Amino acid sequence: MQIISLQVRHDCPFAEVIAQRPGTRATHLCHRGRNAILEVHGPDPPSLEAILDVYGDRGGTLLFEDPESRSALVQFPVCACCTRAQVIPTMESHGTLYLPPSSYSQVGESYQFMRTEGIDAAPALEAIRRRAEVLEFSTHPLETAAFEGDFLVPAGALFRGLTDRQRSALLLAVSQGYYRIPRGTTTQALGQRLGISREAFEALLRKAENKLIWAAVPYLKESPPPDEAGLPATGDAPPRPRATPPGSPPT
Q1: Can you give the pLDDT at residue 64?
Q2: Closest Cα partner for 194 from 218, 227, 164, 215?
Q3: Structural domains present in the chain
Q4: CA–CA gap between residue 113 and residue 100 (Å, rounded)
Q5: How many separate helices (H) and strands (E) can be counted in the chain?
Q6: Dihedral angle at the C-alpha atoms of 217, 219, 224, 229, nearest 10 degrees?
Q7: Closest CA to 43 of 75, 71, 17
Q8: 111-120, 182-191, 196-205 — which is least confidently predicted?
Q9: DSSP 66
């Protein structure tokens, strides 16, 4: 078995709203084209309200709103991605299985699919390219049957500690290929795009990476959290955070 990671960009009324507003993001839960639910997050209450207004004009129904966490749930009768670019049905027509949820960010739309070794991924890639701009299409072996853990890890707990600037730095680094091998850009170039020095950008990125790593540690093993100096604290490990259902903020 293998996992396909797919990132695309196309004319989607769901993703367009997110792409045009820095600092916003959405997690997309879709049931075969019907009853699509978006968990929407904004950097501030006015930004969230602006997104909800647009989604309301486009047929969305507000199910829940939490102004304190700047998040909301919006339901649509159909999935725009399934009716336009048809990302999910196209991939599944080539023998893959969609692994929800997908996500929207300024970078694009991100999906995961599972396929058996005997299925050629090339026809699926070619079919998607006729419908959308493919930003990433990669495969890796399924190494463990750990879907239960994957779905129960609360992504919100992993990303909640990031500031808007740290989140923007990470998204920019990913979108420009900084984490590829070989690297697609430099911290000097990334800093210039944000209007800051190389040293300032590297410091911003290190802080974001440090927060992500330590937030993920409890789900990797029973490990103590960092102390105020950023080093592992001594003593007993804290209890594992409670699992939450899928639909927390994306990657």
Answers
A1: 87
A2: 164
A3: 2-143 (no CATH), 152-251 (1.10.10)
A4: 8
A5: 10, 9
A6: 30
A7: 71
A8: 111-120
A9: E
- Cβ count within 10 A of residue 22: 13
Distance from C-alpha of 198 to C-alpha of 190, rounded to nearest angstrom? 8
Could you tell me the CA-to-CA distances from 55 to 40, 59, 207 in Å, in that order? 10, 6, 34
Confidence grade of residue 198 (pLDDT, cut at 50, 70, 90): very high
CB-CB contact of 153 with 243 (8 Å): yes
Statement: residue 17 has pLDDT above 60 = yes
- 96-106 burial, b at 16+ Cβ within 10 Å, e below that, comes to bebeebbbbbb
User: What is d(CA 219, CA 77) in angstroms, rounded to the nearest whole number?
Assistant: 35
* Residue type at position 78: V
Model pTM? 0.57
The identity of residue 194, as a single letter, is: L
Q: Report d(CA 4, CA 158) in Å as an integer.
A: 23
pLDDT band at 235 (very low <50, low <70, confident <90, very high): very low
Please count the other Cβ atoms lying within 10 Å of the Cβ belonging to residue 223. 15
Q: Are 6 and 87 in contact (CB under 8 A)?
A: yes
Q: Which pLDDT tens digit goes with each residue over 83-126?
A: 666 888 888 888 888 888 888 888 888 888 888 777 788 888 89
Q: What is the DSSP string of 101-132?
A: PEEE-SS-EEEEEEE-TTS-SHHHHHHHHTTS
Residues in CB range of 61: below 8 A, 6 or more apart: 74, 75, 76
Residues in the chain: 251
48 φ/ψ angles, rounded to the nearest 5 degrees: -65, -45
Distances (CA, A) of 98 to 29, 112, 141, 149, 244: 11, 6, 16, 17, 21
